[in-house]
Amino acid sequence: xxxxxxxxxxxxxxxxxxxxxxxxxxxxxxxxxxxxxxxxxxxxxxxxxxxxxxxxxxxxxxxxxxxxxxxxxxxxxxxxxxxxxxxxxxxxxxxxxxxxxxxxxxxxxxxxxxxxxxxxxxxxxxxxxxxxx
Length: 133
Prior knowledge:
This protein is an all-alpha fold. The protein contains four helices and no strands.
């Protein structure tokens, strides 16, 4: 082994990655996945693909629990603040879109219920009219 290679090998052996730095790296990857899933969920909500949104929410929730499994360090909080805020903002927008969709569904249901009641009243009146004949 050349002297320079020996020094590099020694430096690598002397300065192994700490568990903390590995966990921070793993957390960064998890957060990147959470951000990507959130972006995909927002796209699905905007396009009214609610089934797809539901499937993605389950995965995002699992990753979020894993991300917050242990408290964040001050350094992690600082490093991840922008992405965490972005996820929060996307979640608020998704909720807003879902609430608007729910309201529309409720209005459609009321219209259907009124139509059904009107049809039922018409049938009852028609039955009475036919019976009178």
